[in-house]
UniProtKB/TrEMBL annotation:
A GO MF label: 4 iron, 4 sulfur cluster binding
Annotated keywords: 4Fe-4S, Electron transport, Iron, Iron-sulfur, Metal-binding, Repeat, Transport
Stated name of the protein: 4Fe-4S ferredoxin, iron-sulfur binding protein
Signal sequence, start to end: none
Amino acid sequence: MALIITDECINCDVCEPECPNGAISAGDEIYVIDPDLCTECVGHYDEPQCQQVCPVDCIPLDPDRRESREELMAKYERLSAT
């Protein structure tokens, strides 16, 4: 399951540099996560780093993008191969 950033985002800029896949970028009003690049840090860390540093807890799992740990690992492996 990819993560999303909700509109509670305060644009504090701490999540973007923590993402090992480069999935987080500045959107029009708040930061956004590219679900095609988000692996929830599977393959890099035990927990999503963006969630760990977010001061307002505005990065939940995206219920519309359900992925198993195996699917996230496969995505990580595809991303790492490029």
